Each structure stands twice: as C-alpha cells, then as structure tokens.
Amino acid sequence: MAAKSTSILRRALLYVPSSSPKFLAKSLGLTADNVTYDLEDSVTPNKKADARAALRDHLVGLSSRPKSISELAVRINAFSTPYAMEDLAALAPSPHLDAIVIPKVTSAEDLTLATDALRRFAADRHAKGGPEGANPVKLIALIESAQAIMNLREICAASPYLSGLIFAAEDFALDLSITRTPSLSEFLYARSAIVTAARAANLPSTIDLVCTSYKGDDGIRQLEEECLGGKAMGFNGKQCIHPSQVDVAQRLFAPGEKEVEWAVRVVIADGKAAAAGRGAWTLDGTMIDAPVAGKAKAVVQKAENCDMDVASLREKWKGQEPE
Ligand code: COA
Ligand code: MG
User: Fold this and answer.
1) Residue 170 and residue 172: Cα distance in Å, rounded?
2) Residue owning the nearest CA to atom 8 of ligand 1
3) Distance 103 CA to ligand 2 centre (A)
4) Is residue 157 within 8 Å of 2, Cβ to Cβ?
5) What's the rounded mean pLDDT across residues 261-268?
6) How far apart are CA 103 and CA 80, in angstroms?
7) Which DSSP letter does residue 277 get?
8) Among 6, 57, 92, 97, which is 20 to 30 Å from 316 by CA?
9) Tens digit of pLDDT for each residue in 134-177?
10) Residues with Cβ < 8 Å from 96, sequence gap 6 or more?
11) 62: helix, strand or coil
12) What range(s) does the HpcH/HpaI aldolase/citrate lyase domain occupy (predicted)?
C-alpha cells in the first residue's frame, strides 16, 4: 500500500537549481508547500558532482527545516544515468529531507531501486516493518514518457513510500514528438491517466506541468489559466520554476472563498437534514445528496488544511437550514 495522508499539501513544488549558491541561499527565505532542490536538468553534467556536494552541505547546515517551507525535497538524476545512486548515497541521509523526486520513472523497477536505496542509505528511517511514525523519506515519481503512462498501475503500487506523481510536459512532448500548445489539449490523455491512477492507488498528491512563461502579466495570466485547468482535472498542485509562481499556484490550488462558503453551508444544513431523516434536500434551489455533501466535507477539510478561516464561516452560517 502506498504512503497515505490526506493532509499533505503540495499546491506548489518549487524547483531550486542546486548548482547555484545564490538560489540555495534564497530558497530558505521563501514560503512554499514544497521546495525541491534540483540535481537533474537544471544542472549540467560537468556540475553534477559539485552541485551534489553543495546541496549536501546546504542540508547538513540547516538546524531545522525553515518554518515557511512545509516539505524539503531533492530531485535526483534518473536511474538511467550514472548519477542516481551517488545522489541517493549522498542525500538520503540528510537530516531535514522529507522527500525524493525521481525523474523519468518508466516502470516499477525505478521505485524498487529508490526504495532499496532508502533502506540502505537511511536505514533508521526505513526499517522493513519498522515502527509507525518512523518518518520515512517519501518518494514522488515524475511521469514523462509514453512507457510510464502505460505502466502507471504498477508504478503506483511499487513502493510503500510513494506519495505522489508529477506530470512533466516537456520530456513527454519530446518522447511523443508533439508540440505544446496553450490549450494543453495534446496532454489530455496523459494528465487524466495520471490523476486517475494516483487516485485509484490512494496517493495523496498529483502535481501538474510547469508553466514555462513566468514573466510579466502574460506569464501570470497563463499560469492562472493552467492552475485552474489542472485543478479542474483533479491535480492538486503545480510545479514552479520561479518564486513569483508559488503564491499564484498556492492560492488557486486552495479552495476558492465562495467554494468554501458554499461547502460550510452544505455541511451545516446536511447535519440538520440528516437528523431529520432527509437524505436529499435543497440549497439555493439545487439538490444536495450524499456525493454532493461528501464533496462539501472534503472542501471544508482542505480549506482547514490550507489554514483558511473556516471557523468564522461556521459561525456566520450556523443558522443555515436545509430548504
Ligand atoms: N529558486 C530560488 N530562487 C530563485 C529561483 C528559484 N528557482 N528563481 C529565481 N530566484 C530568485 C533570484 O535569485 C532572484 O533573487 P534576488 O531578488 O535576491 O536577486 C529573484 O528570485 C528573482 O529572480 P529573477 O531575476 O526574476 O530570475 P533569474 O533570472 O535569476 O532566474 C530562471 C530565472 C528561470 C533561470 C530561474 O528562475 C531558474 O533557474 N528556475 C528554475 C529552473 C529549473 O529548476 N528547471 C528545472 C526544473 S523544470
Ligand atoms: Mg524532465
């Protein structure tokens, strides 16, 4: 069974190139659900060893995880390269490491290799059949090829530490010789397959493609559109490449204010309807029944996880009755 938690928030996953001392230092002052230090594509082959050593020193030098960052991750190199095992040997034992992002996962084999490496290089956190609450390093798999899409079911079941999937559009487009368009319709099947497979395997997070245009109003507009589109498809977060993208992604992947208000009203009225033995009832002229009430409860839970002020809304709407 995969790592389960409904409370993991990865609305934004910000890549920080590990080859840049400036970016490493800057990252500690940022506020983000997830910061992922990159050793893969933002680092050239001649800089791999230096970047790995600099990142290890950076993590070892932290007295704790910065409070404004919920999750610290490292993107290692792919297992098809000579670097992956060295990355894991150097970084898996890092004290404040929460997750490893594995690029170019194509089959269950990649996750088996990563799982074995965690048990070897961070044995204290990954004892087989170890105690509950041992705080294992989680794994997040990048899905970026046709082969990976075909193997999603086995990938999702391959490791007890697997905690999410990420869709990588640029490598996927390269693999299939397709050209990215603003509508993203060319990725519809792959993105939908990813969110469906992750949900079926009870993985808590699915993270959508990078918005590569990040500059100016046009960049922000494009990012907003992509976030809303991804959320509507079932993704719960977005990869970011620039700090300016993080706030936008975190705002749009949290429930909207109107949505939370509606959900609070449904939850309050549903409790009263249930007490009166009514399974289906009406709010604002629209029928509410079990799946709708279930959705409302999930929205309220998510809003609480996102630190939204749900208590005030409960107070405001405590008199809500089912119509
Ligand atoms: N992580 C941490 N800090 C970052 C950052 C990142 N990914 N991107 C930018 N910054 C910092 C800059 O250092 C700068 O800090 P300062 O104001 O203290 O000088 C500030 O944010 C503004 O940056 P800006 O000047 O607008 O961008 P840039 O020209 O320095 O960098 C990129 C632009 C695209 C090169 C850079 O954002 C980047 O490398 N992103 C990550 C790319 C990556 O990881 N790709 C692989 C995964 S898809
Ligand atoms: Mg890639």
Assistant:
1) 5
2) 242
3) 6
4) yes
5) 97
6) 10
7) T
8) 6
9) 789 999 999 999 999 999 999 999 999 999 999 999 999 999 99
10) 59, 62, 64, 65, 72
11) coil
12) 11-243
Judging by DSSP bridges, how do beta strands 286-288 and 281-283 pair with one another? antiparallel
pTM over 0.90, yes/no: yes
Alpha carbon distance 25, 102 (integer Å): 23
| Joined tokens for residue 178 | 């397709």
CA-nearest residue for atom 45, ligand 1, is 42
Q: Which of 69, 102, 242, 246 to mutate to test the pocket of ligand 1 (most atoms within 8 A of CB)?
A: 242
How far, in Å, CA of 240 to CA of 211, rounded? 7
CA-closest candidate to residue 239, choices 146, 167, 173:
167
Taking the C-alpha atoms of residue 57 and residue 201, their distance in angstroms, rounded to an integer, is 36
Report DSSP state, residue 167: E
Tally Cβ neighbours within 10 Å of residue 44: 9
Average pLDDT, the chain: 95
For ligand 1, the distance from its centroid to the CA atom of residue 244, given in whole angstroms, is 9
The response to whether residue 103 sits with its C-beta less than 6 Å from ligand 1 reads: no
